[in-house]
Amino acid sequence: MASITDTETAAPRTIWSPTRILSLVSPAVWTLLVIVIFWEIAVRVMNVPVYILPSPTRIAQVFASYWPRLLINSGYTMIEVLSGFLLSIVIGVPLAVLVTYSRFAERAVYPLIVATQSIPKVAVAPLLLAWFGYGMTPKVVIVMLLSFFPIVINSVVGMKSASAEMIYLAQSMGASPWQAFWKFRLPQALPNIFAGLKLATVLSVIGAMVGEFIGADRGLGYIILVAGSSFDIARQFAAIIMISAIGMIFFAVIERIERVALPWRAPRNLPGEA
Fold first, then answer.
1. Which CATH superfamily is domain 53-263 in?
2. For all residues of the chain together, what is the average pLDDT?
3. For residue 211, how many other CB atoms are within 10 A of its CB?
4. CA nearest 77: which of 235, 221, 202?
5. N or C end of the chain: which has fewer CB within 10 A?
6. Beta carbons of 243 and 198 less than 8 angstroms apart
7. Residue 270: what pLDDT?
8. What residues have CB less than 8 Å from 194, skipping those under 6 apart?
């Protein structure tokens, strides 16, 4: 027979009630489920033609039957997105450092960076295709052109947010310019840099679609164009789902890296919040 002390020190058992199980699912999932159910009912009740708006069950059927080709073309699109995104980091962050430390670069280069963003990338895409052909290179360049701007802007804002007093204090204690940058200015800028990276993940996917819409023989954008020419709207929705999944995956990866790099900025619920 267990003693009173053993009973008191025993770990409490977790009671898995239906409410607790349902609470483990993200509210976004429940919202999406409600939208899909409403969509399915509305299409069936109103007898909407498949070539105008297919039902979610029809899209699921096409998705299941067309899965191998969607997966292969998703791989091409992911390579374009990842290559352009990494290239935007390699170019954007050093450019932000240059603008931060050089008054001349800020006055000579920074306005041109802003001016380039006023040019529609759809207008530039045909030129890139003429210069680089119909391979992967023009798509990667378009992705880079779209995604490097938020990286540069947020990085510059973050690096300039370090107070002058902090930098002067570091220099007075014998810190070199590199040490002051690595120990003070860069950590101060990391939240802004990650904000720019997360925004750039979304723009990277958009850039890949722009490039594939202009000229491509593979990728999810190519599938959307081919399906649209035959009014296969269900296949278009299946490709759009894959595009959305790619964007969410890239965003989640950057967000995870941010939590590891900035553990002190992990979100915490305040008293009284769920």
1. MetI-like (1.10.3720.10)
2. 81
3. 31
4. 221
5. N
6. no
7. 46
8. 254, 257, 258, 261, 262
Sign of CA pseudo-dihedral 31, 32, 33, 39: positive
Mean local confidence (pLDDT), 13-30: 65
SS3 for the chain is CCCHHHHHHCCCCCCCCHHHHHHCCCHHHHHHHHHHHHHHHHHHHHCCCCCCCCCHHHHHHHHHHCHHHHHHHHHHHHHHHHHHHHHHHHHHHHHHHHHHHCHHHHHHCHHHHHHHCCCCHHHHHHHHHHHHCCCCHHHHHHHHHHHHHHHHHHHHHHHHCCCHHHHHHHHHCCCCHHHHHHHHHHHHHHHHHHHHHHHHHHHHHHHHHHHHHHCCCCCHHHHHHHHHHCCCHHHHHHHHHHHHHHHHHHHHHHHHHHHHHCHHHCCCCCCCCC
136 in Cβ contact with 189 (< 8 Å): no
Residues 122, 216: Cα–Cα separation, whole Å? 14
Letter for the amino acid at 22?
L
How is residue 248 written in tokens? 């969410």
Reference 53, options 249, 201, 234; nearest CA is 234
In 10 A of CB 138, how many CB atoms?
A: 25
**Alpha carbons 7 and 252: distance in angstroms, whole number:** 43
Count of CB atoms within 10 A of residue 245's CB? 12
- ∠ Cα 153 201 28 (to 5°): 120
Global model pTM greater than 0.90: no
Between 3 and 209, whose confidence is greater?
A: 209
What does the block give as tokens for 9?
């020190």
Cα(55)–Cα(108) distance, integer angstroms: 54
Tokens of 138: 């023009």
Residue of 147, 159, 240, 142 whose CA lies nearest to 198: 147
